[in-house]
Amino acid sequence: MSTIQSITIWAIPVLFAITLHEVAHGWAAKKFGDTTAQLLGRLSLNPIKHIDLVGTILVPAVLIATTGYAFGWAKPVPVNFNQLRNPKKDMVWVAAAGPFANVVMAIFWSIVLITVIGGASSENQYAEFFVYMSLAGIFINLVLMVLNLLPIPPLDGGRVLSGLVPNNISAWLSKIEPYGLFILLGLMFMGLLNKLVFTPSILILFFIMSFLGILPQEFVPYLEKLLGQAS
Fold first, then answer.
1. pTM over 0.70
2. Catalytic residue among 22, 128, 218, 224
3. Has 123 been annotated as catalytic?
């Protein structure tokens, strides 16, 4: 696929994956007493309100041009944990809301995929486009889910872990949080992030396809083209 084709296929799935992920955090925070995101207008489904110049535009564009697949992030939705009714307990649900939203979106794109495959031949150019877009939607949401569930602060998994462990361990995790980005970069340069995130995501994707009964031999090339170097 050309760069333009790849951008067209990935744009909508990436934008909504990161937008709904962040909105889910804000929505959950509101339910547990923190209205910060609502007051700042961040509960909107308008992707423009959540766009981060680097994470939403530059990084996905560079990845698509160089690897054929996309990854990115939005501006984090602000959450004031001190305003939660039970900060330590509620933090678990607020943090888990983002990955859960990605699970819901992966299911949505799976339904789209089944509908397209059941309704048209894969040789149809429009059907092929939506097959690729559906796969991109499933894959990016699985990647965001797996990545964010890593138990590294400030990722969602780190916050979930912090809310589940005793206070002394939670305090230790909070000290690690400022170095979370450097830990992720270190894992990436060591080649471990790919094994921890992309490999499980691809395996889950193949499992979903098999579970849905839509992994015939002729369907495999779609995955190979879409995932490119990620596979």
1. yes
2. 22
3. no
